[in-house]
Structure formats: structure tokens, C-alpha cells
Amino acid sequence: MIDFYRILDNSIIFSILIYCVTFLFSDTIGYTFIRIAFILGFIKILIYNDIYFNWDFLKKYLKPIIIFFCVIFLSIIIHGFEYISILQYERLIKAIIPFITVLFFVSNKKHICWMILLLFLGMIINDFYALYDYVVNHNYRTNGIDMGILYFAGILLLQLPMLLINIINKNITCYQKLVLYFLLLLTLFTIYTNGSRMPWLISIIDILFIIFICIKSWYKKFFVFLGVILVLVSMYIFNSNVNTKINNLFNTNDISTRGHYFYLKDGFNLFLNNKIIGVGLDNFKYALIENNAISKESLENLKQDFHAEINGQYVIPHAHNDIIMFLSELGILGGVAYLYMFGSIAIQTLKEWYSSNNIYALSIFLMTINIFFRGLFDYNIANLGVISVYFFLFSIYLKYNYVIESNIKYIIDKKYILSIYGIFIFINLLSGIIKYLFYC
Prior knowledge:
single chain; globular
């Protein structure tokens, strides 16, 4: 007799593993397989009832995420279901499908370990590709196989904490530690060749943080800190690429540097004119034109910088800052929801590490801080792949903790999970209907 349950379960896991293998080389293929797993999960829920999910165990992590997405949808309702807002919300919802799929349908520690291993393997292969591009092709701003420069920078900031935390893991062998040190050096060199200044700064903060918590003696901390500073100063003095990029941070004539300031100022002014409800999700560039909020300085800078063009007029695609974007598009409530979500995840994971010495909680904490800091100088939603991988790794952490620590298996009523699928179906239908009406 065919064991349909086992076939269905294995197919879900297999599809997730293929997602891990392919996503960092082709996000189109990766998303296809994770959506197959998501649909197979829907079939599993309709036929069987044994979906293990402990809300009491996970709610402190999930409530801020749920509130964040509810606030965005509330904004969409207030703004009258605008087409571009629905389309962007649909993209956001689809980006967290890996997160939801792991939470509902993965419950085996071995499967979880394979998922981390395969995704990390994809990261390392992209590093080797960047190394080849730098050495052979003499490309001094490297990217991944199917990633732009800033997208790749975001992935590197998720990769680095994974390595740093595993290096301080006391349960690994000497041989494993040597391999990890090699991979860490490869990752740091790739961060250098990527050439994005904010990841440079964040990487230094990550390393100093790990040094601070690992070395107990203040005497040793001082000398290690001094060693790191000497290395950085030497790179600044003797490496022309580093010297130029750092100097440009304080160069008011540099297009990129002054552009960030002008765009940030214009985005904040847009928020001040729409403090309560914002201008609507993904409406930033259109609202700048409608509100005549593009300053003369920004307009002049956009002639030489990256820009969008609407009806022949140059406009900023985004403010290069997550907080300003959520404040301007969703109002004060949206900005608070964004800060609450990432702040809550950071606080909860830090508390988990402090109370139980869970190094994997520390890894998620660093990833969260990295994403947040990066969002002060860029717009993370512009690279949804980074956000998708971050939440995927977060879901793996949550399920690993649940599998290891939760002694009681809770079977969640299928109606709650089906309601999640109902929301996805509703958003997709709404997007299709509005798209049809928009073009008709």
C-alpha cells in the first residue's frame, strides 16, 4: 500500500531543500520550489491533522511580525486598495512563504541541519564566484552569481554571524574550527571586494562584539581591540580603494554621499506632511512628485545618480533608509510597527542567549542588528531576497529551538492554518482583480 502521507511529507522537505540549493543562484527557481512546498503543505493540512505548532512557545517572536503585516494591510485599506500598494504587499507576503513553510511543516532536527548546510553552501559558492570575479576579471565591486552588489552585501551580512557564532561554539572539533576560520577569511575578503561601505562598518562591529563577549580579561580585550584598529588603520593608509571610499564618506562633492543626505531629508519632509497615514505603500516616488517634495539639491544630484523617471521628471526611488520609508509610506504607526518588529526580535534573541547561553540566538540577534543597521543607509525592501533569507533563517532557528526544547507536541487546529492560506489566496485574488481593473 502506498504511504501517501510519507510521500507528501518527503516531497515538502525535498522542495524546501531544493529551495535552499537554488535560491542564491536563481531566486526564480528557488521561489518556485518553496511555493511547491507551500502548496503541498496546503494539501497535507486538508487531508491530515497532525501539524505540530506551539503558539505559547513561539508567540513572543511571532506577534511583532503579525502586527507589522497587519499595520501594512490597514494602511492599504485606508488608502483605498491602490494597485501599486497591493502589488508590493503581495511581494512582501510571498517573500515570507519560506518562513511560514518551515514553521508549519518542518519538525525534524536532521532536516533543519541540512537546510542550514545547503543554504550556507550556496553562500560560500557565491563567495568563490566573487573571488574569481575580483582576481581574474579585476572587478573591484563584486556581486553574487545572480545578485546585484547591494543584494549580495545583504546576504554577506547574514552569512558573517553564522560563521562567527560557530567559531565560538565549544562543541566543534579543531579541524572544523580550522575550516570555519578559512571560510571566515573568505567571507571577510568577499565583504571587502563587494565594496559597500556600510557592510564594512557592520562587519567590524560584529567582530568587535564577538571579541568582547568571548575574551573575559579586560587586558586581553584591550590588546585585541588595539590589534583590530591597527589592521584597519593599515588598510586605510596602504589600500587606495579603502582610502578613497572612506574619504568619500566626508566628501560633500561625492554624488553618493551627498545624495543619501538629500534623499533622506526629502523623505523626512514627506513624512512630516503625511504624519498620520503616510502616502501609501510603494507610493514614495509618486508622492514626492505630487507633493512637490523633491528639493533642488536632490534634483541636481539625481542627474548623475541612480534615479527613476516619471513623466520625464527625475525622482528618488526610495530614501535609502528603512525607518524614513515606513514613516513616509505608512505614517507614524508604520514606523513604530517596523521598529517594534526588529526591536522585539533583537531583544528576545539577546535575552535567550543571556539566559541559556544559546549561541544560535546570538547569531539571529547579530543578523537582526545587521539588517537594522543596514536599513539606516539603504532600503532593505528594495532587495526582498535578503529579507526572505533572513526570515527563513529565523524560522529555522525557531523550529530548531522548538524541536529541541519543547517536550510537548501541540497539534494546532487546521482552521488556523487554513486561515493563513486564505489570507494568501485573498491577497493574490485582490491583486489580480485590481490589476484587471487598473488595465481596463
